[in-house]
Amino acid sequence: MIIDHRTYEIKAGCLPKFLELYGTHGYPVQLKHLGQPVGYYVSGDIGALNQVVHLWQYESLADREAKRGRMQADPDWQAYLAKSAEAGYTVRQENKILRAAPFWQPK
């Protein structure tokens, strides 16, 4: 099992607009192809600001590639990406693949 950990930095003042756009047009498509995320969070007023962090679980890198490939081929996802690019809310994106430590077993 792996976790795809994604962090997006959003332009100051644009977080509510980003969340509205994503929640309406992006999230439903991701749910369709990726299933429920492990978590979806926004940063508070301590530490780095204007960040969105989401975590997605996959059985393997091959599972991730297959699911994300189907999502990328979905016209609704492509429409969301175009709207997101046009809005220009995202400043930076970071992606990590996490694996469980050998002594910890997820539920």
UniProtKB/TrEMBL annotation:
SUPFAM superfamilies: Dimeric alpha+beta barrel. It holds the Pfam family NIPSNAP. InterPro entries: Dimeric_a/b-barrel (IPR011008), NIPSNAP (IPR012577), NipSnap_domain (IPR051557). Coiled coil: none annotated. Gene3D superfamilies: 3.30.70.100. Residues 5-103 form the NIPSNAP domain. It comes from the Bacteria. Belongs to the NipSnap family. This is NIPSNAP family containing protein. It comes from Oceanibaculum pacificum.
